[in-house]
Amino acid sequence: MNTDDAGGDRQSAGEQTAVLPETASQLVELERLQQALSEADERAKNHWEQYLRAIADLDNVRKRAQRDIEAANRYGLEKFAAELLPVRDSLELAVQNAERADPRSLKQGQEATLQLLVKALNKLGIAVIDPLGEPFDPARHEAMLAQESSTAEPNSVTQVVQPGYELNGRLLRPARVIVAKAPGAG
Q1: Is the distance from CB of 132 to CB of 160 less than 8 angstroms?
Q2: pLDDT tens across 40-91, in order?
Q3: Under CATH, which architecture does the 125-186 domain have?
Q4: What is the dihedral of CA 87, 93, 94, 98, to 10 degrees?
Q5: How confident is the model at residue 11, as a pLDDT?
Q6: Rounded to whole angstroms, what are the CA distances from 19 to 6, 9, 16, 30, 37?
């Protein structure tokens, strides 16, 4: 008997033992599992690529939004400035001609300039708050004084000291008003 064959089918230390399936069903199962693993690896790779694309898209959206915000901040007043330029021109013309103009024409020029300003503010969505005779509203009005009145409803606006302004329904400045109180009310 040969001593090399004494241990049966021993392999040298450097070789690895391959586990072979014992039946054909195990062989089919192994093949199926290898195929499923390959498909799972491919899906994982696709999902990773989709994830990286989504991250890049999100970063691009964030950068675009930041640029849009910066542009809005930089150029947001452009429309406002364009609407006010005719008012400035009118005032400049009035100043240049003030010495030669008579008081009546100066008044007409001021009224025309005021109309230009009112028109510009209206185009920009700025509305005047003139609450004369309306009930006092602390959200839109600032009471400067409460005066006794026998003719006005208590807590109503009897006089507008300074009009208020809203921009597209949002308060810019409250109207400063005098409010009626009942005669003899403390």
Answers
A1: yes
A2: 999 999 999 999 999 999 999 999 999 999 888 777 788 888 888 999 998 8
A3: Roll (2.30)
A4: 170
A5: 52
A6: 22, 14, 9, 11, 19
Q: Who contacts 129 (Cβ-Cβ below 8 Å, separation ≥6)?
A: 140, 141, 163, 164, 165, 166, 171, 174, 175
pTM > 0.85: no
| DSSP single-letter state for residue 88 | H
Highest average pLDDT, of 23-27, 88-92, 129-133, comes from 129-133
Q: Say if CB 110 and CB 94 are below 8 A apart.
A: yes
What is the spatial distance between Cα 126 and Cα 100, in angstroms, rounded to a whole number? 35
Q: Are 134 and 157 in contact (CB under 8 A)?
A: yes
Task: Report whether pLDDT(160) > 90.
Answer: yes
